[in-house]
Amino acid sequence: MATSKLQALWNHPAGPKTIHFWAPTFKWGISIANFADFSKPPEKVSYPQQIAVTATGIIWSRYSTVITPKNWNLFSVNIVMAGTGIYQLSRKIKNDYFNEEQAAVAKE
């Protein structure tokens, strides 16, 4: 029985013999790296990098529900990418713009 399930996975249209399997697998690495960057100070977070991660996540999460066969691994990794990118951008924006306003008010 396990052999038939393994063979079904191997021969699936989005199985390990296709790029549809490996592309999201490598994108999980980017998402995990973005999780690891949560401990970085916001000053070291890059706007262009996080905008790219966020945009990629939003665009491809939509596209992954349109393609046939539906690739739920691609969908889920892109939701995570968009979420981590939005979180990192919010940290960076808060640090760059709102902390300066609070510091200016405190000086007065």
From TrEMBL:
<keyword id="KW-0670">Pyruvate</keyword>
<comment type="similarity">
    <text>Belongs to the mitochondrial pyruvate carrier (MPC) (TC 2.A.105) family.</text>
</comment>
<keyword id="KW-0813">Transport</keyword>
<dbReference type="GO" id="GO:0005743">
    <property type="term" value="C:mitochondrial inner membrane"/>
</dbReference>
<keyword id="KW-0999">Mitochondrion inner membrane</keyword>
<comment type="function">
    <text>Mediates the uptake of pyruvate into mitochondria.</text>
</comment>
<keyword id="KW-0472">Membrane</keyword>
<dbReference type="GO" id="GO:0006850">
    <property type="term" value="P:pyruvate import into mitochondria"/>
</dbReference>
<keyword id="KW-0812">Transmembrane</keyword>
<protein>
    <recommendedName>
        <fullName>Mitochondrial pyruvate carrier</fullName>
    </recommendedName>
</protein>
<dbReference type="Pfam" id="PF03650">
    <property type="entry name" value="MPC"/>
</dbReference>
<keyword id="KW-0496">Mitochondrion</keyword>
<dbReference type="InterPro" id="IPR005336">
    <property type="entry name" value="MPC"/>
</dbReference>
<keyword id="KW-1133">Transmembrane helix</keyword>
